[in-house]
Amino acid sequence: MAVIPLLPCASIDEVLEFYSALGFTRTYRQTKPNPYLAMRREDVELHFFGMPGFDPAQSYGSCVVQVPDTAALHRAFAEGLRAAYGRVPLSGIPRMTRPRPRKNVGGLSGFSVVDPGGNWIRIFPVAGTGTPPAIGKLAEALENAVVLADSRGDPAQAAKILDGALRRVADASAVERVEALAYRAELALTLEDPARATAVLAELRAIPLTSADRARLAATLAAVAELQP
Hints:
Helix content: 40-55%
Strand content: 15-25%
Number of strands: 9
Distance between the termini: 46 Å
Order of helices and strands: EHEEEEHEEEEHHHHHH
Number of helices: 8
Shape: elongated
Low-confidence stretches: none
């Protein structure tokens, strides 16, 4: 038995180009009488139908994809996007988030791809143990912000929550503050506010870090280095 999601889009050609960059292969394409496209990567198969006048920004299309290793798939997707677009897009449509623990799915680390049709492809591990809940106030605010932006698609509210916590919480560790600021910079780019992203990144880079801190933050610091306000 197989269940294959059928997702809307304005242009199957744009969807074909995007998913090809992610390493998918076209298995079927039809332009008449109705635009239709089927894409496949290993065991993941997605189908799309074109709708004249469709607005991707208003799309409610979504599906969950479970994979053995979300980090490995994200790296592969990121490499494909860099090759095709010169960067990993964080704002507009299409875009892709970075893997982070989601407290609304038991702490499992997932990421989302928003494709040219505005469809949210939510990618999570097949199984595993989630990250324990955050303890510090800033880390807790970061968890809430991730749910709002990466799960619910509300980056503006996520930014407000994180801004408030960054102002109020003075006793957060350097690691917690860097993680929060790194995500706030990404949110600024998602909200197309490069000035805010630049200011947040400057604050982040001014935080003194030990070698142990840098080891814990290796993935985050690597992602920060790629951010382009």
